[in-house]
């Protein structure tokens, strides 16, 4: 929110939230909420914002260099949104711990976590060993996350 506030030179967070709500309702952006078993944490955590078309990012973003990782994450978010509209029990969240470690997408089917997805961009296959990334994301649980 603060980066949007600075970029647009708008002083009021409430005004930015109102504008984001308008473009969300116009289906230009969509939000993914934080996964948490604590309802208070879910309510007060910031949502991640994605754009419905990568062309909008390329046109309006302030870029000093290519940001393929962000574009790829946005592309995966769009596909997961599409799938979530097709399956009623399919729900997509993100997860972040207190040390700012993050899993891009937590895919739930009903009450069960079905898959964790971490989107990573690299020029070298050697940078990601075997297509898997070990993620320690929830207390007492180790997960293998698929990397796209």
How would you characterize the overall build of this protein?
- It contains 5 helices and 7 strands, in the order H-H-E-H-E-H-H-E-E-E-E-E.
- The protein is α+β, with helices and mostly antiparallel strands.
- It has one domain.
- Strand 3 and strand 4 form a beta hairpin.
- The chain is globular.
Short description:
The chain has 148 residues and is α+β, with helices and mostly antiparallel strands. It contains 5 helices and 7 strands, in the order ααβαβααβββββ.
Keywords:
globular; 148 residues; two-stranded antiparallel sheet; disordered C terminus
Largest beta sheet: what is the strand line-up? 3-4-5-7-6
What is the average per-residue confidence, as pLDDT, rounded to a whole number?
A: 77
Q: What sequence of helices (H) and strands (E) makes up the elements? A: HHEHEHHEEEEE
The best one-word shape is globular
Q: In percent, how much strand structure appears in the residues?
A: 25-35%
User: Biggest sheet, in brief?
Assistant: 5 strands, mixed
Please work out how many helical segments DSSP would assign: 5
Distance between the termini: 27 Å
